[in-house]
């Protein structure tokens, strides 16, 4: 823009509110840095997806070969299905629990504060630490399943596809429900008490005011939380790598893990880039939709009109 | 909220508490057992051995060193974020022309770019720059990926400063730089501490960038050390869990002393 070079003062309307406003130059360093490591690679990944490259030498263009191969690759197709299953299971288990816990934790009682303080611990931990912890806890020989055979059968939870997906869903919930609870807690606290008072006067009980006041008021947070679950679930990788390594066989290989496998275990960076591009496009589309839906980009408050 | 206790919800919350707390307790308990003792009593049994050898062992397989590496990465990432984000947020809030609002949208979009999606080109670029297997190569992309959320948080708190204050300063002849250092920064201290805590957490817990961009033991960070420990000595569960606990200690300390900033930072991600 025209103010690009003017770091000092943009006095287009002297005396008006624009006096003393910073120029665009203030935004440049961070933008350049971010562009270099996020936007440029995004463009690059699109280009690499049309090349063949084994990590050494220069990438060679090979047209749409990678894309054609991917479309016929049974593991890729299976991985898309597994990704969808993992994302859906994550949303279905995490959303109701997070809403209930969040609304409950929004109360100001002291015991609730103490309980929530402990319940939030998982969101401080790295997914590497969480995965390593759970891998140890569900170890068939030394872990919890071996001690509770009536609940877990032979104890080898990661030995079957259903078991592996169940473990990934459970650990995902353990890791992320606290985070989504926090989102809902904040939103539930922001609900004006007058709405509950009005509902009470109209004769609504706890359950009715939950469904008719709380839930509608949490709409924006639900959208945000849902999108974070979608994007996060889509790219779930650390837990898959450490807990199941995509196994048994390829039974829990989701798309993000398959990309890693192609690139850094199989050294087929061209195909990996094509998979990465698919992930990026889907994730960005989802987030664009939410940016529109929540009015984030217009810098609006969610409390507007209340 | 109503004063009447809700028993059903209370019971549910206590069950959830057990799901969170029992694994953490089992972990902590196991780290003080000998490997043989843990093998005998199992995960849920009452321990009959007590030892610090697991922590000593974690140090001897390199976790002290990984710890130092992680501290270096974390401090550097925080430094980059603290230098880059405040001017950007200041421009986003105060300079409301098309270019800055475009930049802001770019960063919002950046929120959704998963690191996995760009890891191959980043690997390529970092190798090209000769930074492969170098902590700097981990620091740069980690900091870049912390920028969108931090910008969102800090511009939120700078937006809370009333425009009248800026106008008053401008009338007194203050330059934008002066208003930045004397007004915007002091009045957004809460947001600043939030982004510091948040970016530190991101860097400390980062896994994908170190996994892809480093190789040698001397450049290993703690999360990667855990993964490596598990693949190599997976059967030594008490030793492994001691390493997990070590990786958590600094974060738990931050949680104790800067809980507000941390929780606010995490809520900022959710966009409230």
Automatic annotation (TrEMBL), chain A:
<dbReference type="InterPro" id="IPR035906">
    <property type="entry name" value="MetI-like_sf"/>
</dbReference>
<dbReference type="InterPro" id="IPR051393">
    <property type="entry name" value="ABC_transporter_permease"/>
</dbReference>
<keyword id="KW-1003">Cell membrane</keyword>
<dbReference type="GO" id="GO:0005886">
    <property type="term" value="C:plasma membrane"/>
</dbReference>
<feature type="transmembrane region" description="Helical">
    <location>
        <begin position="23"/>
        <end position="50"/>
    </location>
</feature>
<feature type="transmembrane region" description="Helical">
    <location>
        <begin position="80"/>
        <end position="106"/>
    </location>
</feature>
<protein>
    <submittedName>
        <fullName>Sugar ABC transporter permease</fullName>
    </submittedName>
</protein>
<feature type="transmembrane region" description="Helical">
    <location>
        <begin position="157"/>
        <end position="177"/>
    </location>
</feature>
<feature type="transmembrane region" description="Helical">
    <location>
        <begin position="113"/>
        <end position="137"/>
    </location>
</feature>
<keyword id="KW-0472">Membrane</keyword>
<dbReference type="InterPro" id="IPR000515">
    <property type="entry name" value="MetI-like"/>
</dbReference>
<dbReference type="Pfam" id="PF00528">
    <property type="entry name" value="BPD_transp_1"/>
</dbReference>
<feature type="domain" description="ABC transmembrane type-1">
    <location>
        <begin position="80"/>
        <end position="290"/>
    </location>
</feature>
<comment type="similarity">
    <text>Belongs to the binding-protein-dependent transport system permease family.</text>
</comment>
<keyword id="KW-0813">Transport</keyword>
<dbReference type="GO" id="GO:0055085">
    <property type="term" value="P:transmembrane transport"/>
</dbReference>
<keyword id="KW-0812">Transmembrane</keyword>
<feature type="transmembrane region" description="Helical">
    <location>
        <begin position="269"/>
        <end position="291"/>
    </location>
</feature>
<keyword id="KW-1133">Transmembrane helix</keyword>
<feature type="transmembrane region" description="Helical">
    <location>
        <begin position="226"/>
        <end position="249"/>
    </location>
</feature>
TrEMBL record, chain B:
<dbReference type="InterPro" id="IPR000515">
    <property type="entry name" value="MetI-like"/>
</dbReference>
<keyword id="KW-1133">Transmembrane helix</keyword>
<dbReference type="InterPro" id="IPR035906">
    <property type="entry name" value="MetI-like_sf"/>
</dbReference>
<feature type="transmembrane region" description="Helical">
    <location>
        <begin position="135"/>
        <end position="154"/>
    </location>
</feature>
<feature type="transmembrane region" description="Helical">
    <location>
        <begin position="233"/>
        <end position="258"/>
    </location>
</feature>
<feature type="transmembrane region" description="Helical">
    <location>
        <begin position="7"/>
        <end position="28"/>
    </location>
</feature>
<protein>
    <submittedName>
        <fullName>Carbohydrate ABC transporter permease</fullName>
    </submittedName>
</protein>
<keyword id="KW-0472">Membrane</keyword>
<dbReference type="GO" id="GO:0055085">
    <property type="term" value="P:transmembrane transport"/>
</dbReference>
<dbReference type="Pfam" id="PF00528">
    <property type="entry name" value="BPD_transp_1"/>
</dbReference>
<keyword id="KW-1003">Cell membrane</keyword>
<keyword id="KW-0812">Transmembrane</keyword>
<comment type="similarity">
    <text>Belongs to the binding-protein-dependent transport system permease family.</text>
</comment>
<keyword id="KW-0813">Transport</keyword>
<feature type="transmembrane region" description="Helical">
    <location>
        <begin position="66"/>
        <end position="90"/>
    </location>
</feature>
<feature type="domain" description="ABC transmembrane type-1">
    <location>
        <begin position="67"/>
        <end position="258"/>
    </location>
</feature>
<dbReference type="GO" id="GO:0005886">
    <property type="term" value="C:plasma membrane"/>
</dbReference>
<feature type="transmembrane region" description="Helical">
    <location>
        <begin position="102"/>
        <end position="129"/>
    </location>
</feature>
